[in-house]
Amino acid sequence: LYSAASLTVGPVEQRLGFDFVRLTCKGNSTWWRVRKFPENSVPYCSDVWNLGESVCTLYTKASYSDDGVYWCESMSKQFSNAVNITLQDLYSGPLMVIPDDPVKKGTFVSLSCNLRIKKNFPSVAFYHNNKLIQNDSREELNFLAVSKSDEGSYKCQYSGKESPSRYMSVKSAVGPESSSFPVRMKVMNAVAFILVMMLSMNQ
Question: Taking every annotated instance into account, which residue ranges of this chain make up the domain Ig-like (predicted)?
Fold first, then answer.
C-alpha cells in the first residue's frame, strides 16, 4: 500500500569538510521511519519510529555500504516512493590543504589533499601550476627543503574530480634578519654615542 508520504533527497551540504545529504520522510500524522535495501545499519539513520517526519543523514565519507535504495515505511506497512542513492554521485570533490601563511625557504613543508570521501581508488594526483608532479596512493605532497621554485598554484585530483586551486608563497629565510640589520646598527650607534658623551662629561 502506498500513502501520501514521500521521501525527498536534500541538496549536498558540507559539515566539517565532509559532504552529506539529508533524506527526509514526510507523511500524514502517523509513525514513519527510513528503510534501506540492501538492509544494513546506517550510522546516521535512526531505526526508531518518528511522528510525521523522519530524517536520515548520509555522509560521503561513510562506508559505500550506505549505497542502496531508500524509502519510507509506516507502522501500518505503508510505503513511500523509493530513491536510489549512490554516495559517489553526491561527491563534490577533494580540497587542497595549504598553509595560509607564506612558508620559509629551506624548511620542511607538507601539503595534503582532503578527499572528503572514503578512499576506494588508489590514485591521488597533485598539480603544480597545472603540471602533474605526483600521482600515487599518497594523500600528502612533501617538500624536505622548500625552494622559491616550489611557489605557485596547487590543486589535487581524486576520483575524476579536482579541488579548487590554492597558492603557496615561499619567503626567503634571511629576509627578516637582513631587514632588521640596519635597525640594529642604528641602535648600536646610538648607544655608542651616549657612552662617548657620558665619558666626556665625567672627564
Answer: 94-169
HEC letters along 171-193: ECCCHHHHHHHHHHHHHHHHHHH
Q: What is the pLDDT of residue 195?
A: 66
Residue 81 CA to residue 31 CA, distance in Å, equals 16
Q: H or E segment at 26? A: strand 18-37
Antiparallel, parallel or unpaired: β 103-104 and 170-171: parallel
Establish whether the linkage from the previous residue to 11 is cis, with ω within 30° of 0. Answer: no
**For position 45, what pLDDT does the model report?**
61
Residue written as cell 662617548? 196
Q: What single string gives the DSSP state of each residue in 103-146?
A: EETTS-EEEEEE--S---SS-EEEEETTEEEEEES-SEEEESS-
Whole-prediction pTM: 0.58
Q: State the pLDDT at residue 12.
A: 77
145: cell is: 627543503
Residue showing cell 566539517: 16
Cα separation, 41 vs 56, whole angstroms: 12
> pLDDT tens digits, residue range 84-120?
888 777 777 888 999 999 999 999 999 999 887 777 7
